[in-house]
Design brief:
- The chain has 206 residues and is an alpha+beta fold.
- Strands 1, 2, 3, 4, 5, 6, 7 and 8 form an 8-stranded mixed sheet that branches.
- The protein has a single domain, classed as Thiolase/Chalcone synthase (Peroxisomal Thiolase, Chain A, domain 1, 3-Layer(aba) Sandwich).
- A hairpin with a 5-residue loop joins strand 6 and strand 7.
- The longest helix has 15 residues.
- This is 3-oxoacyl-ACP synthase.
């Protein structure tokens, strides 16, 4: 299997900060995640009206992906052969809780469809795919912790088998206002950082 793959770029959203390749793009002292993500959306000139209807996990994943893919200057009029491989620990638990609350709400006859639609973690992949016309392979895995080994093996396999030209992969976790983190990176056949397990871990922990 060809292992000559590289990390072209990476994005992190954590602690009210958005960074691209370790350069801080935006920082906001807002204590509320909702206030922070709205401010970051406006600051990064992200344009996707449906953003404000998304659940928190999808907002987090979408903004991180948008920052990263805008940096690649993709042509949105073309289909882009980029696979998506995401992972986290909490799945869609934050939205699942809201869905359960809507079911138990005696003032409501029916649970909220707007909430229910996001009770799968891979819905965020669909939102990203729609905007950037990504019709290649996509998967969302649940692990106890960040699993660099799996991301490496799975994305390299997609590239080696020519199922994708590039792979957007990483960790997108949202489990409450104070427990959120996105770390996404783009793997390709060109770049400056070798796609190895140690390099992935180093970037994630930076």
């Amino acid at each position: 299997m060809n292992t000559d793959f590289y990390i072209k770029s990476y994005c992190r959203i954590k602690d009210n900060t958005v960074s691209l390749n370790d350069s801080v793009l935006f920082n906001d002292a807002s204590k509320s995640f909702i206030d922070f993500i709205k401010s970051a959306y406006k600051n990064q000139n992200t344009k996707y009206p449906k953003f404000f209807k998304m659940d928190n996990l999808s907002k987090l994943a979408f903004l991180a992906a948008d920052v990263l893919l805008k940096n690649e200057n993709l042509k949105l009029e073309n289909d882009n052969n980029i696979a998506i491989v995401f992972s986290n620990r909490a799945s869609s638990l934050d939205t699942d809780r809201k869905h359960q609350e809507s079911i138990q709400n005696k003032e409501s006859y029916y649970p909220s469809p707007a909430v229910f639609v996001y009770t799968l973690p891979n819905i965020c992949i669909g939102e990203i795919s729609i905007k950037y016309k990504l019709y290649s392979e996509n998967s969302f895995f649940i692990f106890d912790n960040f699993n660099a080994s799996h991301l490496l093996t799975y994305s390299n396999s997609l590239l080696s088998s020519n199922k994708a030209h590039e792979v957007l992969c990483g960790w997108v976790e949202f489990d409450g206002e104070n427990n959120y983190e996105a770390f996404l990176y783009l793997v390709s056949k060109t770049g400056t950082i070798k796609h190895t397990e140690q390099n992935i871990i180093t970037l994630y922990n930076t």
